[in-house]
Design a protein that fits this description.
Elements (H helix, E strand, L loop, with lengths): L8 H18 L15 H16 L14 H9 L2 H6 L10 H15 L1
């Protein structure tokens, strides 16, 4: 609990990932607690899904996070001012309009262009 609050579903999932990693380090043939086909964990999966839904319904870690898409005008401004070169200069990729670059550029567009 964080100061009396419930852990968000994402934190609980990461804790389980850490537990799974430790089990794998100790025993390479360890079972996979995330395997939905493994009947031994059917009750665990059902309860964990129920808990996550309950937490989301309570508004815990239910914030919607998204980035507005880059408009054609914003993209053209990035190319015109050579911001793509700044973004991609340390990259091994050719300057291409990838999803990752697009999301990264949104922050650049908002703080520099707009």
């Amino acid at each position: 609990m964080l100061k009396g609050q419930r852990y968000p579903p994402r934190s609980l999932h990461l804790l389980l990932c850490g537990l799974q990693r430790v089990m794998r380090q100790e025993n390479e043939r360890s079972f996979n607690i995330f395997d939905k086909k493994d009947e031994r964990f059917k009750g665990f999966h059902r309860e964990f899904d129920r808990l996550c839904r309950e937490l989301h319904n309570q508004g815990i870690d239910a914030a919607v996070r998204h980035t507005d898409p880059v408009t054609m005008d914003e993209e053209n401004e990035l190319w015109k001012n050579e911001y793509w070169a700044l973004i991609l200069q340390n990259s091994c990729y050719e300057p291409s309009f990838s999803t990752t670059a697009k999301l990264y550029a949104c922050g650049v567009v908002r703080s520099i262009v707009l």
